[in-house]
């Protein structure tokens, strides 16, 4: 019998270089772990919690790959550029960028302060633009790259009481589609995942109330709230060669709570 090619080889990311913003917690942390398991070297971006970032780095290194933490506020263009520069100085390339940094804070529209509006848009949307801008320049030189942006169901259908957050996440989706068309000629794929409720530090206050948690789960067709690892899997899939023909896509990871193509 003629040996068949290993169809799972396309899922491996051996020696690819990945940057994960917001990599010290939640979805970013789970994504960093999985990237490392598949053989990628991982740069863990964080803003405040160096201890948490170092824990992720150590866990990733235990998988036999390289990793380091880098403090940068991605909403600051200069710091985003420093993050990408540090990555390329260490590894001479960047193959994967996962934009998972973000905040979820809201208020009724007539109570949203200018400071809250600006902070949300700066971190969630401007921060995505800034780090993508920095990474795209290097990826163009390589003529290859994969970018995955963590958006939200709020960016697809809106979210009452969180208009600022929904606006930032809807902006990310439009940004993904624009970049996918713009960067395709350099063999750079750009996609998004749109999670619904995810059990992370960001949602622990809302999901900490048992009754509220049960009500939220009942409203999801699958009846369950996603774990960070259940979102990381689809993110990493979009970084593999199994997804070579996917760009400009929004992959819904929400248990069926938002059904849109």
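Q: What amino acid sequence fits the structure above?
A:
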């Amino acid at each position: 019998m003629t040996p068949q090619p290993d169809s799972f080889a396309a899922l491996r990311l051996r020696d690819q270089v990945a940057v994960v913003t917001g990599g010290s917690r939640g979805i970013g942390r789970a994504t960093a772990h999985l990237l490392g398991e598949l053989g990628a070297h991982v740069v863990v971006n964080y803003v405040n919690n160096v201890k948490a970032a170092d824990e992720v780095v150590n866990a990733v290194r235990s998988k036999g790959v390289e990793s380091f933490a880098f403090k940068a506020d991605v909403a600051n263009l200069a710091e985003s550029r420093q993050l990408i520069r540090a990555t390329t100085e260490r590894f001479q390339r960047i193959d994967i960028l996962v934009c998972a940094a973000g905040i979820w804070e809201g208020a009724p529209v007539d109570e949203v302060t200018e400071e809250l509006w600006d902070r949300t848009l700066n971190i969630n949307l401007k921060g995505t633009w800034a780090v993508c801008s920095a990474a795209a320049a290097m990826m163009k030189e390589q003529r290859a790259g994969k970018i995955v942006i963590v958006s939200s169901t709020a960016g697809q259908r809106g979210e009452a009481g969180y208009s600022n957050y929904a606006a930032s996440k809807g902006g990310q989706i439009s940004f993904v589609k624009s970049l996918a068309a713009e960067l395709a000629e350099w063999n750079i794929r750009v996609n998004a995942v749109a999670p619904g409720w995810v059990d992370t530090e960001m949602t622990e206050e809302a999901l900490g109330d048992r009754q509220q948690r049960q009500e939220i789960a009942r409203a999801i067709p699958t009846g369950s709230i996603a774990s960070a690892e259940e979102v990381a899997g689809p993110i990493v899939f979009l970084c593999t060669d199994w997804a070579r023909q996917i760009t400009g896509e929004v992959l819904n990871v929400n248990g069926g709570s938002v059904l849109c193509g």
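Q: And what stands out in the fold?
A: The mean pLDDT is 92.
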